[in-house]
Every structure is written in structure tokens, then in C-alpha cells.
Amino acid sequence: MNMKRKPKAPGEVLETQFMQPNQITQKELASHTGWTRKHVNELCKGKARVTIDTALILGKAFGTGPDYWLELQQAVDIWDALHSEKRKERLESIVPLMKMVAA
């Protein structure tokens, strides 16, 4: 996977593609979902991750299904992992198994 640009965080997508076009405030989303306004704010600001429970609720609320939200979160998680210096070093030290079997 070669992603040069960090994918949009699920919270950014939530805010720009779902809440703003439908004029839904953080307070309204919090009330509708049973979340605190703080949780919605942290989600929108990328400070809270999309968990399975979060994805289930967002999927139901916006008619997308949970996979949509989990895939957005996964893309960010993979990008973060691939751009972590510690993980880069670790990954570079691993030889693909298929090459070892063929050798």
C-alpha cells in the first residue's frame, strides 16, 4: 500500500460530508446518538478513533453501514503505522516468507 497523503480522518468525513451538508450540529448528533458532546467533538477533531460501536451507531444514523466508518479508520491507522519510524525500522528487518521458501 503506497499512500503519499494521509487519508481523511473519519471525523473529518463525518463533519464535512454528513453533518455540514445536513446542517447537523455536534450537539444534535450527540443527542441523537446518546454520546456526549465532548465525544462527538473529539471524533470530529480526530482525537477519538472510530470503534466498532461507534461505526455501528454512525452507520445506522447515516445509512452507510458500519464498514464505511471502519474502513476510513483503518486507512488512517495503516497510514500512521507505515509512517511511524519505529515501525518502518521493524518492517524493513522482516524478509517476506515467500522469498525464504523459494530460496
Automatic annotation (TrEMBL):
Gene3D superfamilies: lambda repressor-like DNA-binding domains (1.10.260.40)
Residue stretches making up the HTH cro/C1-type domain: 24-69
Name of the protein described by the UniProt record: Addiction module antidote protein, HigA family
UniProt keyword list: DNA-binding, Plasmid
Matching PROSITE patterns: HTH_CROC1 (PS50943)
Gene source species: Vibrio alginolyticus
Coiled-coil annotated spans: none
CDD domains, A to Z: HTH_XRE
GO molecular function (one): DNA binding
